[in-house]
Amino acid sequence: MSSDPGHANSVSGVWSDSLAELVTYRYVGCQSIMHDRHHAEGWTPMRSHLRAAGSILAAPLAISMLDTAGINIDRLYHLGLTQIDVQLYDPGLDVSRLHVIGCVVREARTQVFTECRFEDADRPGRVIGAGAANWAIVGVTPDGFEYTDPGPGHDEGRDVPTMVSAFELEPLPAGGFVLPRLSPRVGTDTLHHGPILVGLEHSALQAASAVGGGPPVLQSMSTRIVRAGRRPPFLWGAQVLAAAGQVIGCRAQMSDGSGDAIAVAHLSYGRRV
Questions:
Q1: Are 216 and 268 in contact (CB under 8 A)?
Q2: pLDDT in tens, 77-98
Q3: Which of 16, 165, 191, 250 could be stapled to 204 by a disulfide with Cβ–Cβ 3.0 to 4.6 Å?
Q4: Considering its fold, how many domains does the chain have in total?
Q5: Among 207, 204, 195, which Cα is nearest to 170's?
Q6: Residue 154: inside a domain, yes or no?
Q7: Containing structural domain, residue 252
Q8: Is residue 260 domain-resident?
Q9: What is the rounded distance in angstroms from the CA atom of residue 88 to the CA atom of residue 194?
């Protein structure tokens, strides 16, 4: 999802003055096309840096979904992203290319509702998951919007940065992550939703992995962005809420430098044996 660099800030992230430096979509390599006002689709190469040991990661799924939604709605509105949900029905470790089939469910007076399904692009009809995103309308997009293709992403290789390091997150000794400052890569005035999602997921994955019993397999991630991230440093942490049977439930939170919550996520994992 992209916008003209001169556009105004959204509630959940700034359109960077140097959009070419924003890492979110370039790292994932999602590329989308629009069919009509309410329908679009996109493709993402699911390389090893977009996976964990047990399944595809939620953040690249969400980012791919938001890119496909954005090609429909960014040309119409300035939007604040408020809710992101991802459901994974299949670990998808053998999926080499993701196909995102997206639609705008409704354009309401103050909100826009979008959803998608995730398929294996090389096996049409194989649905591996679904997603949804809700957006608050901040204003109308001025004329001149152009979708910026983020490119194909990183090729496989040892020189590809991990997702955590690419989004400038630093691990904390006791678990979780910190982002010391804003930058053109993650947002110059307001933190972009990409690092928010990455930090929440990797904090939860840390916590779930510590339970043991095999690599966690993502089942769902439900995220609420409750405030704009403008006051670094930003902190992420997670806790295990339940680890009964084959299910691990986690809660992750991101806060700003004053301790105010920016985003909260609940994640459910199965165990891969």
A1: no
A2: 999 999 999 999 999 999 999 9
A3: 250
A4: 1
A5: 195
A6: no
A7: 19-144+163-271
A8: yes
A9: 19
Q: What's the chain's length in residues?
A: 273
Element (H, E) at 211: none
Kindly indicate the confidence band of residue 148, based on its pLDDT and cuts at 50, 70 and 90: confident
- Helix, strand, coil percentages in the chain from 3-state DSSP, rounded to 5: 20, 40, 40
The answer to whether residue 130 sits within a structural domain is yes
Of 102, 105, 100, 110, the residue nearest 11 (C-alpha): 110
pLDDT digits 0-9 by tens, 104-119: 999 999 999 999 999 9
State whether residue 63 is helix, strand or coil.
helix
CATH number of the domain at 104, please: 2.40.160.210
Report the C-alpha dihedral over residues 197, 203, 205, 211, rounded to 10 degrees: -160
Q: Tell me whether strands 247-255 and 261-271 are parallel, antiparallel or unpaired.
A: antiparallel
pTM: 0.91
